Amino acid sequence: MSRIPYKIYLSEEELPRQWYNVRADMKTDHAPILNPGTLKPVTEEELSGIFCEELARQELNTKDRFIDIPEEVQDFYKMYRPSPLVRAYCLEKELDTPAHIYYKFEGSNTSGSHKLNSAVAQAYYAKKQGLTGLTTETGAGQWGTALSMACAYFGLDLKVYMVKNSAEKKPYRKAVMETYGAQVIPSPSDTTEVGRKILQEMPDTTGSLGCAISEAVEVAVTTPNTRYVLGSVLNQVLLHQSIIGLETKIAAEKYDIFPDILIGCAGGGSNLGGLMSAYMTDRLAGKKSPYFIAVEPASCPTLTRGKFAYDFCDTGKVTPLAKMYTLGSGFIPSGIHAGGLRYHGMSPILSQLYHDGFLDEARAVKQTECFEAAVRFARTEGILPAPESSHAIKVAVDEALKCRERGEKKTIIFGLSGTGYFDMMAFQEYINDELVDYVPSDEELEQGFKGIPQL
Amino acid sequence: MSRIPYKIYLSEEELPRQWYNVRADMKTDHAPILNPGTLKPVTEEELSGIFCEELARQELNTKDRFIDIPEEVQDFYKMYRPSPLVRAYCLEKELDTPAHIYYKFEGSNTSGSHKLNSAVAQAYYAKKQGLTGLTTETGAGQWGTALSMACAYFGLDLKVYMVKNSAEKKPYRKAVMETYGAQVIPSPSDTTEVGRKILQEMPDTTGSLGCAISEAVEVAVTTPNTRYVLGSVLNQVLLHQSIIGLETKIAAEKYDIFPDILIGCAGGGSNLGGLMSAYMTDRLAGKKSPYFIAVEPASCPTLTRGKFAYDFCDTGKVTPLAKMYTLGSGFIPSGIHAGGLRYHGMSPILSQLYHDGFLDEARAVKQTECFEAAVRFARTEGILPAPESSHAIKVAVDEALKCRERGEKKTIIFGLSGTGYFDMMAFQEYINDELVDYVPSDEELEQGFKGIPQL
User: Fold this and answer.
1) CA-CA to B100 of 20 to 30 Å: which in A190, B190, B238, B454?
2) Contact B109 A178 (CB under 8 A)
3) Which structural domain, as residue segments, surrounds residue A239?
4) Which of A87, A153, A173, A424 to mutate to test the interface with B (most CBs of B within 10 A)?
5) pTM of the model
């Protein structure tokens, strides 16, 4: 075996040409998504009122293991993919560990994260269907940025409802989206019925993801030739994000690398679901596979302390119901800086895999621990990670230190899903020792669980 | 010839192991740098009071065409290099041009620019000499960030004097440097004699690069085991940045690509000097070579409207004198957003090459034109460029459109020296139509020229 380089790149020819649909291999399919009005499984036709037709089809596809990546999407991918699988030689040295640490780096595109992988696909299908515009919501801003880039490329109008609090605290995230031609509307706004209603009831609200979703959906269904898109949780998103794991496995196998442990942060599940895709195939087929760890914030402990139940995907209760791990759609996570992980629910696919023991472990970590790991990583490996990705770093470091204690030479791969360039306020607070941790009490969680509907 | 991929990456084995010292090949060496006290050529010993010994040697080296890149620096390079040579297929399509456009992308490391190439080298030599700290100044913040990363990696203390105006307008740039452990001091400050003097005379000043240099130099020469470092203009910096051009040429030749035109933005000259290095070898040897274009801001037209004369490298007149194109060390460029190009002088090497006709052309462009090209580029190629790099994009687009008019299939390579993620205020102003252009009048320039010393 030749020496492993710092960065393993695939050639353009080696880029996967199909996404992998893990659902086709699952022993138990996730429970069907329900129409919130009828409480019956949603149909493709119903979904097509909100989503593009092809995306509605993908959402419900349980049969096709592989789905062709359209050539136009492949062409866009080639502008920023393959992403490198990086050997963290310097971090290993810093930790003095016998473990081999790798990370799949998804942050070297302008959106700053893996979100672009699905944004491009969703914008492409919208264009192909003859739509002229899309709407979405964004919290931390990574999804909104990714979709802005994709819509600029395919020539689609885009309205992004950005949680007001975020829009005010991250004016430069807003500016990036506007540079790509998107219209960014702080939510709640007076541009929708639901927004006006909320403003009337709570004039001083700083907004929430739930409200932003409701506004975006309202505009999508009331504007001609327009649909709504979402950057996580959905099956279609996990499908598109499978490119991460497929590339990872091809790159690893070129150098006979087999991960003993695979680690990813999990908010809605798009990053971890993507990263573990190609290895989950093996697990589901009973073959040798890594030990999978999902990392979530202790302040929003969906997998570790949530309930596995049917719940709404949004606070406004306008979306379909999914069976998933949830803290209750009314649960408002504290204002931690990993905004991308502040979601009350979890991808139905990941939830089912976790419930069935195929996703081995979920671990909740505190944000100060994550920032500590993030700074250590930045100073040794160069890259300043996103607060979200830092959750995976924290657990990778912990596992590598365990290897040191036990003298084990394990191979660890974690997902470095993005960069923190637009999160410097958070790093500043960490450096100034102003960051606090928050762990909800059992009573608080019980309060949230009360909001889960009894079906 | 096989189809050219979107991105050409070199393998780790193909990475250059030596820097190229263009000075050894120059027909006419640049005039010697003068000690400001004696007005005699500075000696290595004199320079070693300010710079590390090895860097002082490199600064004066006229003989060695190639200088080994230390293994420790190569190891750091491997974390973020090689940088890709990208075929701008989408931009070509958008411009409907028969030209082939390529860009060498130096922005995919956390510092966001090519500056890291020299920062790592300078920090390494400081560490090797047994120094414990470095000082520097930063304006736009790219150099300060790069050096912070390098100092964190090698375990060196770093004090960055950041122009007060920038520190206030770019708090997140400051936060990045602090995250990497640097101490960032808005300049002028009360931490130095020269700073206190300036504050006494002009208590409301927002600072200038000249003042920040003076403070950084004062601290370096009065603190034990500490030296001063600079991110552009110097010969040593162009030497380290030659890695850009060396990689470019190796990547291009793998696919039989020969650039007819090579374009780079030029402030102090580090980026363009680096990019054209390997092709300038051929020019100086009388072989076939590209047409070299330096692009500078119309508001700071050093090459296009400056004088070729001995001048101070800083406003405070504490640094040695160099013969270069200059607008006068007292010239204060208007507050354009390409802070990295707001320098009154130019690398002595580039100045001499331009004077002798080896650097073919300098072109001055207005910032609004650059932002227009930047947004067009971002929306087609994905990457949001730095305002500095946008100068090169603007001219590359112009040349490609010329090719369309004339039906010429020229090959254009330009340097995409960095990303604009920390420059969103500028893009916001552009989007809001609030950006203005400024072109100094002949009278203003004459005023600046009066500050050039008569030797």
Assistant:
1) B238
2) no
3) 72-112+234-448
4) A424
5) 0.96
Residue A423 lies in a domain: yes
Read off the pLDDT of residues A79-118 as tens digits, 9 standing for 90 and up: 999 999 999 999 999 999 999 999 999 999 999 999 999 9
Q: Total domain count for chain A?
A: 2
Q: Helix, strand, coil: what percent of chain B each, to 5?
A: 45, 15, 40
Q: Which of A90, A384, A428 sits opposite B110 (nearest CB)?
A: A384
Asked if B381 and A421 come within 8 Å (Cβ–Cβ), the reply is: no
Residue B382 banded pLDDT, cuts 50, 70, 90:
very high
- Give strand pairing partners of B138: B162
Residues of B within 8 A of A427 (CB-CB) are 175-176, 179
Using a CB-CB cut-off of 8 Å, the residues of chain A touching B383 are 109-110
pLDDT tens-digit map of A416-447:
999 999 999 999 999 999 999 999 999 999 99
In a domain, A454, yes or no: no
Domain annotation covers residue A9: no
Separation between Cα atoms, residue A55 and residue A53, nearest integer Å:
5
Identify whether residues B245 and B290 lie together within a single domain.
Answer: yes
**Which residues of B fall within a CB distance of 8 Å from A175?**
424-425, 427-428, 431
Mean pLDDT of B412-439: 95
CA A297 – CA A389 distance, rounded (Å): 11
Q: SS3 of A172, please?
A: helix
The ipTM, to two decimals, is 0.95
CATH code where residue A403 lies: 3.40.50.1100
What residue in A sits closest to B183 (Cα-Cα)?
A431
